[in-house]
Amino acid sequence: MTSMINPECLWRDLLIHAGFGEKAAGGAGDLATAEWITRELERLGYEVERLRIPVPLFQPCRCEVVGSNCALELFPQPVVVPTTDEGIAAPLALVHSVSDAAAAQGRIAIILLPYARHAAIWTSVAAPLLTAVAEAGALAVVILPFGPTGEIVGLNSYADKPFIPIPVAIGRPSDLAAYAGMASANLTVRLYLTGENRVGDSPTLMARRHRGVRWIAMSTPRSGFFTCSVERGTGTATFLWLAAWLPKAFPDHSLFLLNSGAHELRFAGTHSALDLAPSAGVTDMWAHIGAGLVSRAYTTIRGGRRLDTADPNRICMTTPSLAVQARAAFSGLAGLDDPQPILSEVGELSTIVERGYDKAFACLGVNRSCHTRLDVSDEVTPDLLASVVEGHRRLIEMAVAPAGRSG
User: Fold this and answer.
1) Nearest Cα to 87, choosing from 110, 64, 56, 59?
2) Looking at the DSSP assignment, which residues form a beta bridge with residue 113?
3) Cis peptide before 168 (omega within 30 of 0)
4) I need a labelling partner for 366 at 20 to 30 A (CA). Which of 185, 266, 353, 405 fits?
């Protein structure tokens, strides 16, 4: 049911979002997106405050592994530990598990992450492998995150320090044959991760409309890897639609909206802003609009094809008080229609509910192209997105109505 939702309005906002390009925290695309969202919220009557979130920026110069007959692209892993202009010369060591780590001493470790839809370092098998090779004396690390696309995959990490104190970069898993060949031949290669580190700003936006004594809160992250049309664009379009709908649907409630920067740096923007949010005692519900709300499914038979149905690799997490209502609100939306308890550090919701908000939910997904350069607008359709926005609208109505909704 999408009768209240105009899919083309959602699609317009998603395409505007895509047009700002890559959204790395503090980069030009992130800042342009923040300016656009600020204008949209002010046009809707919100008072918008900007909270400065310092973030590490790296301006790359040369990022590659160079062997005798190849040069393989690398993506610098934030927070970046650069090499000198001469790079690091050493043979390679393939690392599949912690038991392989000792072989990386004095070498460049090539960590092969098992097949998955990777998104973060600290919540995945990447963390113990990185720690192990650093302790073993590796000179640098290239992570190959195997997944559906074979492409470079950005990994969320810390905001204030490198995960390990040696150069770390992400390689393209489809280059495995080249890495394996150089490792088996014990060839010395040269890894370059050169560029300039500096400090930037990924602003967190806090928007308010003061009316009644009770509050409704809504949040969504803004920054991300590459263009992130599914990961961030679907949430941004949903956030803006709901921002326009909420004042009409709940005229007696005050509204608090949070659009956080530095998401991929362990949710730094959200952590910095929560002390400024309305307290749990006066907040009737908190809707967190998470990553990758909906994307198109793929088949894998004989090369596969993209479908116009939704990828079910997504989840709706709720506090216990909203579980039954969430099941009804998202009925028929695969992956969202079976609400689950809140998982720690899977998006920002666990950070929010730790503050005592007892009516809160978040929908999020890890789409096939998540954190890759392939996460572009044709990975979703207007109708698929409209159905998910309608589910959010229904759940907010159900959650707030018993607390005194009027109008």
Assistant:
1) 64
2) 145
3) no
4) 353
> Residues 361, 214: one domain?
yes
The answer as to whether 182 is a domain residue is: yes
Which residue is it, tokens 């003061």? 210
For 77, the domain range is 58-198
CATH number of the domain to which 395 belongs: 3.40.630.10
What pTM did the predictor assign? 0.95
Q: What is the pLDDT of residue 403?
A: 46
Split at pLDDT 50, 70, 90, the class of 393 is very high
> Residue 389 domain-assigned?
yes
Do 35 and 93 reside in the same domain of the chain? Answer: no
Q: To the nearest whole number, what is the mean pLDDT of the chain?
A: 95
Specify the amino acid at residue 295: S
| Each residue's pLDDT tens digit, 192-211 | 999 999 999 999 999 999 99
Tokens of 171: 């390689």
Rg of the chain (C-alpha set): 22
- CA-wise closest residue to 313 among 296, 299, 301: 296
Mark which of 167, 198, 229 sits at the end of a domain. 198
Tokens encoding 185 = 């031949």
